[in-house]
Amino acid sequence: MRTFVGMILGALLLVLGVYVYDSMRTSSVASGQVAQANRTLVNWDVAAEDWKALKTRAHEDWVKISSR
Q1: pTM across the whole model
Q2: In terms of domain of life, where is this protein from (predicted)?
């Protein structure tokens, strides 16, 4: 159980770390004029759309399974 919780916590910390790194790298306050030239590690718009599609599919599958 500790291993499973550790893996979940590690994944959450990784995502949080990448998000903070990307937000600091592309922030005009943190980087000044260079912010436009820097690229983020993660395309957050695509990740948000994929997350939305995953939630929608999971909900549809749950409805299908629970209606049997």
Answers
A1: 0.49
A2: Bacteria
Of 43, 22, 44, 18, which is closest to residue 31 (Cα–Cα)?
A: 22
Find out whether 56 and 63 touch, Cβ atoms under 8 Å: no
Lookup: tokens for 33: 């004029």
Domains identified in the chain, total number: 1
Tokens representing 67 are: 């209606």
- Boundaries of domain holding 4: 1-67
Residue 56 makes CB contacts below 8 A (sequence gap 6+) with none
Give the model confidence (pLDDT) of 6-33 as tens digits: 999 999 999 999 888 877 766 555 555 5
List pLDDT tens digits, range 31-46: 555 545 556 667 777 8
Is-contact 40 17, C-beta < 8 A?
A: no
Structural tokens at position 37: 């030239």
